[in-house]
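hi!! sorry for the late reply, been swamped w classes. u asked for the two structures so here they r. pasted raw, havent cleaned anything up. first the sequence of the first protein and right below it the tokens
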Amino acid sequence: MIIHLPYALYITSLIAAFFLFPIFIQILEKNHILDSPNERKIHSVQTPSMGGVPIFFSCLFALIIWLPGAIALEFKYLFSSLSIMFLVGLRDDLIPLSPRTKILSQLIPILIFVYLSEQHIHSLYEIYDVELGATLSFFLTSFFLLSFSNSLNLIDGIDGLAGSISLLILTFFGFWFAFTEDTTYSFLSFCAAGGLTSFLIFNWQPSKIFLGDTGALLLGLLIAYLGIVFLNTNEALPTSSWIKYKSPLASCVAILIIPIMDTIRVIIVRLLNRKSPLQADKNHLHHLLLESGLSHSKASLTLVLFNLIFIGLTFLTRKIHPIMSWLLLVSMSLAAMWSIVRFKEYYSKSFTKKSRV
């Protein structure tokens, strides 16, 4: 029974979301609850947002049907925090919050979860494998959960991107936890992946609904949590295990690479231009790809392919020395960013030449 539960959760949340999305989209359109275009947004027509609502309720429906009560009780703090984060995102989608208020609101579910949960970043793993103190562990865990939740939100700028990246990461975690026989986390991963699969049907270009803060913050918190569990579960595996990563921290960064790489790059560029890191702009990786002439779908698939390559190479080199893992990660990240920037510059030069002709 347990062996088939991840797939049952995936299919149930997928079907539930597939039927919920058209109803939800119609309700939003009928009540004119739409995301309007402006100078910071790419879409040109009013479009429903809050795609996280059907995902949230379809996953909740699947979990209620299939998840044993004892396992559900094990995740009570996570579910509570995700529910509060869902409400924060819903509030921001309906009535936008200021950047400062939005960050402070996100800290509420994160701090509650970190205080009550046992899943913390308790060391620097392969970098410096010494137990961190309670205060530093609390701070690092909270910072990571907050940072990644917003990183995923930042890449939610074109049709299909945030959903596709999230689906890829959740699918990887689903299978990895299944291989480690940690089935409870496999349940969560596949359940969320099911709802996301249906979302992408309606979010692919031309998009009928956006993920919104409701979905991006919710998924960001869940994926960041699973990343922490990945670190701790990997550390507990025996050295002989074929699925164990010798450099778990570098591997975790590689699995979550696109949101992390994009956020770091954007913050550095904004600081170099003497702008606030919280000031929105159109300098994300997906913006560069769009300026290179790619459509939303091709830009999304390009970044998903980059993320897939990182995951694949990290898996193939999971037994190499930690120093080599970090060198590979950094070099691949720089190469990926360089190739995207160069591609954009090449397109700009080619377009200028054609215009002159």
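now the second protein. again sequence first, tokens right under
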Amino acid sequence: AAREATWARWTDVAAWPAWNPMCAEAILHGPLAEGAQLELNLVHPRGKGRTFWTRPRVVEVAAPERVAWEAVGPGLTIRTETTLAEEPDGTLLTLTSATTGRFAISMKLMALGDRTLARMYAAMLNALVADMGRVA
């Protein structure tokens, strides 16, 4: 799909539960802008239906190319960034996540390691591709 259409679908956070199997509930408080609060109830890929809440803040918006948010806790910051690039046959959406801080290794070992995040993000992106195909 075109970058603008992909951007519109990806940044319509409230609609995530309709197409995203990893999202049980999503709320964006206010417009998508730096400082806006997100509330995401995400499905843990290893949790057999178990969900967890994360409440990141939007830290960067450069429509329709990039959006980033950060979840911050004691000794821990998780930054998630999405970039969208035009390709000859549609849009390349890249989703990255970085965990930093004193407790980063604990988070990776006990909760959301690289493989677990990769499974979660792959499911999200595959669902987005399928949803964009239905819309087109």
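hope this helps!! also noticed smth abt the second:
The two ends are 7 Å apart (CA to CA).
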